């Protein structure tokens, strides 16, 4: 076949392809290749025809042979790209990316529009594969080419915005280069916008700040972006809210931070971050109740802030709401995102605080949970304070050997640490070794005199010590007063002060004040509540007694606060108000249905009201629960007599007289 014939055969092949006669085209190409096996165009035409005849492997082979012959010719590369782009071609994305890369090289010095088209396709391919770094590098190259061509500012602005869209899902990938590309795109986009200030620009700035807040190490850039946005949009609260949360999370409470909280609250009094900031300010000022109130309110609006939950738990600990503090620590864990560096710092603090709260709850289940929390603290074994907490948790769980072992270790390795001596004191106190406990608590106080709990336990040690100290509780009083001065929220101390003034000093009025304070601090402290009510009655101050009882019964859920219902029911019974007495005594019985004395009192209330049948049932129930309650048996007989059931009444009277021959009311009956 001469040169002329080869050209004619190739022309026939091209015409056949144009007329979609692909098999015919293949015949012509094969004839050419018999003569010239390295003919570039023949291989390209075979690739084209085979692709159309759904013979992808043959097409790929032909294109690759053509590329081998002429690596810098466009046709074969374009054909291969078209082949790989077909929907039935799977698992060729990596190969397609290489083809696009080569096409970019070939188009770079020539057809710019085609270069842009291929560039867009390559970026789309990388994006589907979640290869964000390659997306960033390729798109930046496109923007650079546009800049060199002198593109308009508006076009470049749209390109930077497109880059943000492409990279916005990459923040989970933790790739520093991609992250920097995304932030660079944001900076260019906010600085190249036309309509400033304007709504689109404002939203773009918000997205930029939100993106920055995901990167814990970009604090300088974050603060700058917030201040820049505030300068442009002084009435928009968003940058201030982000700044406030940033200060909360970083634990920074400088003048700048406090000014930021104030400015935010002036702008929006209901802003979650602003109210959280106010709560932290209260915590610093030792206004713990206000801190709890503000932090709780702020967290209802902005719950995804682990540091704020931690501060709330801290404030709750200060007012001895230990169970609430545990719940707040649990919320803090929920809000903790990925375990990056700053979060790890918070995680350890939250775990330790949770363990402290659980230890203060002081039951075996809480102790087990405290041990589990302490085990999760990173580098816990090297922290003696954490070790002392573990010792206390073991003690609460009744594991004396483990607690003692930790105590001995701490005393030898950290003899100057107050917690080492305090742990030893708690162990001795639990074993009623009061003299050794006294020595340990004195050592702890010497090293940390401002800890109220140490004074409280030294006071308790003196309270329960030998007969001599029991007669003179002056030493205990001194320690209780010190503890109360150091921690005005420590309810148990006020309860013991009440015991001292009531039982030792005989000062009922002062005792009543201490019990009342103890009960105000801890509404679950029945001992203090009951004592405050009893002393108010003894002092003839029924108004105070009733106000305490009314407050408790109003808040009480069904089956709770038996003591308060019982006290108030008996008061109504004494003062001739049987209907109210019935209601309260029934409520007391819902809390404890097996209290025979309460059933007896309920019988009296029904009897006073003239409800004889229900009175009879109540007296019978009382004597069933406690057969020794002769009075209830007698009252049942008396009610039967009133109801005209004389035979039953006589039988019941005789039953009483068998047990108690000289029981006068029964003889009279």
From TrEMBL:
Entries under Pfam families matching the protein: TPR_16 (PF13432), TPR_19 (PF14559)
Repeat among keywords: yes
GO biological process, one term: RNA catabolic process
PROSITE patterns: TPR (PS50005), TPR_REGION (PS50293)
Stretches assigned to coiled coil: 3-39
Keyword Transmembrane: no
Keywords of this entry: Coiled coil, Repeat, TPR repeat
InterPro entries, alphabetized: Ski3/TTC37, TPR-like_helical_dom_sf, TPR_rpt
Gene Ontology annotations for the cellular component aspect, listed alphabetically: Ski complex
SMART domains in alphabetical order: TPR
TPR repeats: from-to residues: 40-73, 562-595, 596-629
Protein name per its UniProtKB record: TTC37 protein
């Amino acid at each position: 076949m001469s040169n002329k014939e080869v050209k004619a055969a190739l022309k026939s092949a091209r015409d056949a392809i144009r007329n979609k006669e692909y098999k015919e085209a293949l015949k012509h190409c094969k004839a050419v290749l018999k003569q010239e096996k390295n003919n570039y165009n023949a291989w390209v035409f075979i690739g084209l025809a085979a692709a159309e005849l759904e013979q992808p492997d043959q097409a790929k082979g032909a294109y690759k042979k053509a590329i081998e012959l002429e690596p810098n010719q466009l046709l074969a590369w374009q054909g291969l790209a078209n082949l790989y782009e077909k929907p039935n071609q799977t698992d060729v994305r990596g190969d397609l990316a290489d083809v696009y890369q080569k096409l970019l090289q070939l188009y770079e010095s020539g057809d710019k529009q085609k270069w842009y088209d291929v560039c867009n396709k390559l970026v789309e391919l990388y994006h589907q594969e979640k290869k964000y770094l390659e997306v960033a590098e390729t798109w930046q190259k496109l923007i650079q080419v546009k800049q060199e061509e002198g593109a308009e500012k508006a076009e470049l602005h749209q390109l930077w915005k497109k880059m943000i869209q492409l990279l916005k899902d990459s923040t989970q990938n933790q790739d520093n280069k991609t992250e920097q590309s995304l932030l660079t795109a944001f900076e260019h986009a906010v600085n190249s916008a036309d309509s400033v200030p304007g709504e689109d620009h404002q939203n773009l700035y918000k997205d930029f700040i939100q993106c920055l807040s995901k990167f814990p190490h970009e604090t300088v850039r974050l603060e700058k972006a917030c201040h820049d946005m505030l300068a442009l949009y002084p009435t928009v609260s968003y940058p201030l809210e982000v700044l406030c949360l940033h200060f909360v999370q970083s634990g920074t409470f400088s003048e700048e931070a406090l000014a930021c909280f104030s400015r935010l609250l002036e702008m929006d009094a209901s802003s979650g971050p602003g109210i959280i900031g106010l709560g932290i300010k209260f915590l610093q000022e030792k206004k713990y109740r206000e801190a709890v109130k503000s932090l709780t309110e702020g967290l209802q609006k902005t719950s995804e802030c682990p540091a704020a939950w931690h501060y709330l738990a801290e404030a709750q600990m200060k007012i001895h709401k230990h169970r609430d503090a545990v719940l707040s620590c649990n919320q803090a864990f929920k809000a903790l995102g990925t375990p990056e560096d700053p979060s790890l710092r918070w995680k350890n603090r939250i775990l330790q605080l949770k363990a402290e709260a659980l230890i203060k709850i002081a039951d075996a289940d809480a102790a087990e949970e405290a041990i589990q929390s302490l085990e999760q603290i990173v580098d816990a074994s090297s922290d003696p304070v954490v070790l002392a907490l573990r010792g206390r948790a073991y003690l609460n769980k009744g594991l004396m050997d483990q607690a003692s072992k930790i105590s001995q270790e701490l005393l030898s390795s950290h003899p100057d640490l107050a917690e080492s001596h305090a742990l030893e004191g708690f162990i001795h106190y639990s074993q009623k070794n009061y003299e050794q406990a006294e020595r340990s608590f004195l050592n702890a106080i010497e090293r940390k005199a401002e800890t109220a709990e140490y004074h409280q336990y030294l006071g308790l040690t003196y309270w329960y010590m030998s007969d001599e100290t029991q007669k003179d509780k002056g030493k205990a009083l001194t320690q209780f007063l010190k503890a109360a001065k150091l921690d005005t929220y420590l309810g148990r101390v006020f309860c013991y002060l009440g015991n001292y003034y009531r039982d030792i000093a005989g000062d009922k009025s002062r005792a009543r004040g201490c019990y009342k304070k103890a009960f105000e601090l801890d509404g679950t402290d029945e001992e203090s509540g009951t004592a405050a009510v009893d002393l108010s009655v003894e002092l003839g101050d029924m108004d105070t007694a009733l106000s305490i009882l009314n407050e408790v019964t109003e808040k009480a859920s069904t089956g709770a606060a038996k003591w308060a219902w019982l006290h108030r029911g008996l008061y109504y019974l004494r003062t001739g108000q049987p209907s109210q007495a019935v209601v309260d005594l029934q409520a007391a019985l819902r809390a404890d249905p097996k209290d025979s004395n309460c059933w007896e009192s309920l019988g009296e209330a029904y009897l006073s009201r003239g409800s004889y049948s229900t009175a009879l049932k109540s007296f019978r129930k009382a004597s069933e629960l406690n057969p020794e309650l002769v009075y209830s048996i007698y009252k049942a007989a008396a009610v039967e007599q009133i109801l005209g059931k004389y035979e039953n009444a006589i039988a019941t009277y005789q039953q009483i007289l068998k047990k108690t021959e000289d029981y006068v009311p029964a003889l009279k009956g």
